[in-house]
Amino acid sequence: MSSTTADPAGKPANQQFDDSIALDVGKRLFDAGKDIKNILITGGAGFIASFVVRKLVLLYPEYNIYNFDKLDYCASTNNVKSVADKPNYTFIKGDICVKDMVNFVLHEKKIDTILHFAAQTHVDNSFGNSAEFTLNNVMGTHVLLEAARVNHVKKFIHISTDEVYGEVEHGGSELTEESLLAPTNPYSATKAAAEMLVGAYQKSFGLPTIITRSNNVYGPYQYPEKIIPKFVTLLSENSKVFIHGDGSNTRRFIYGTDVADAIEVILHKGATGETYNIGTSFEISNLELTKMLIRQMGLGAREKELITFVEDRPFNDMRYAIDSTKLEALGWAPKVSFEVGLKRSIEWYKTYSRKWWPNISGALVAHPYKSGAQHEIVLQK
Ligand SMILES: NC(=O)c1ccc[n+]([C@@H]2O[C@H](COP(=O)([O-])OP(=O)(O)OC[C@H]3O[C@@H](n4cnc5c(N)ncnc54)[C@H](O)[C@@H]3O)[C@@H](O)[C@H]2O)c1
């Protein structure tokens, strides 16, 4: 096991940033959980999990938080720098696919709770190297589940996505947790496959699992491969943005701190064996979102010139729509309006995009499509 503060490209992460958003962790909502003491958070140097790491470390000093992350291209230890020196925080550089290490950590740190975020997350990449997604998202989850079973973990919260439901037609009703899973791209297929294993470990072995499915998350700390950080970065550098297809596909968005609040609620009040949707009803097409970003960045006069339409993804779900009533019944509600969250995000990316990660250039192209080389390696092993 090794502990590190270096980012993937070897660039030191301990730069000084005046990042006040990192301290926006809200108010503590619960007493310490009876069986919660040592929490392993996988993928904690990534985007969403870093909101959860910061929140739990700062608001729940009696919990020990172990951030287990392999520091892939999209990760940054800057995301968790604000808590790096806290006594209840430990960073462990490791890969969830490596069984011996995962077992060692669970045993050695007496892990009772796992919040499993680590995954390959970019749909575009999954069209190129889909076996990487199977390896990390399915096999990695399987390794973690088995280690959790052997080490008698008391709570395993698996972070999934609304993309597992597949697309919902315009005008189609919101999907509940009981709806069928019908993923349409390799990313969402691996997330759905991982969910099947989670369900099987719960049924066959009684592993106390919970699944969450959220809609598109946005905010600071997201590697600029996803639409909002990518377009803000490009526009702030006076570059054109690329819209897949005609831009009519819609997405619903939820701000990072609202998801962290949801995880806090589910960790303390979620019922074993249940699945919880985490979503908002704020929905916008990719084209409208792009125009909004252009206007908010003071570039409205150049709108036409700044937008380029490019070939669509091999398949691009028209829309997703989930119903979060079940989670709301536990007392959760989103707090950050899209207007406020977007403003914060724009300011943050204008300042930090090029400083936060060692290299983002490869992400700023129309289709950040990774080659299938890894795919062949995985299949031939
Ligand atoms: N971003 C979204 O809009 C969104 C929406 C719904 C659900 N999700 C889910 O939430 C989770 C987190 O998503 P995100 O966007 O924050 O991810 P991200 O891409 O920002 O970060 C993923 C993190 O996982 C780590 N990781 C990947 N493979 C690993 C492995 N084998 N071992 C250890 N660490 C590994 C990476 O280094 C990185 O820090 C994922 O499971 C994703 O499917 C994301």
From TrEMBL:
One GO molecular-function entry: dTDP-glucose 4,6-dehydratase activity
Q: Which InterPro entries match?
A: dTDP_Gluc_deHydtase, NAD(P)-bd_dom, NAD(P)-bd_dom_sf
Please name one Pfam family that this protein belongs to. Answer: GDP_Man_Dehyd
Q: Does the keyword NAD apply?
A: yes
What domain of life is recorded for the organism?
Eukaryota
Tell me which UniProt keywords the record has, alphabetically: Lyase, NAD
What this protein needs as a cofactor is: NAD(+)
Q: Which NCBIfam families match?
A: dTDP_gluc_dehyt
Q: Which Gene3D superfamilies match?
A: NAD(P)-binding Rossmann-like Domain, UDP-galactose 4-epimerase, domain 1
Q: Where is the NAD(P)-binding domain?
A: 40-343
Q: Name one GO biological process term.
A: nucleotide-sugar metabolic process
Record's protein name = NAD(P)-binding domain-containing protein
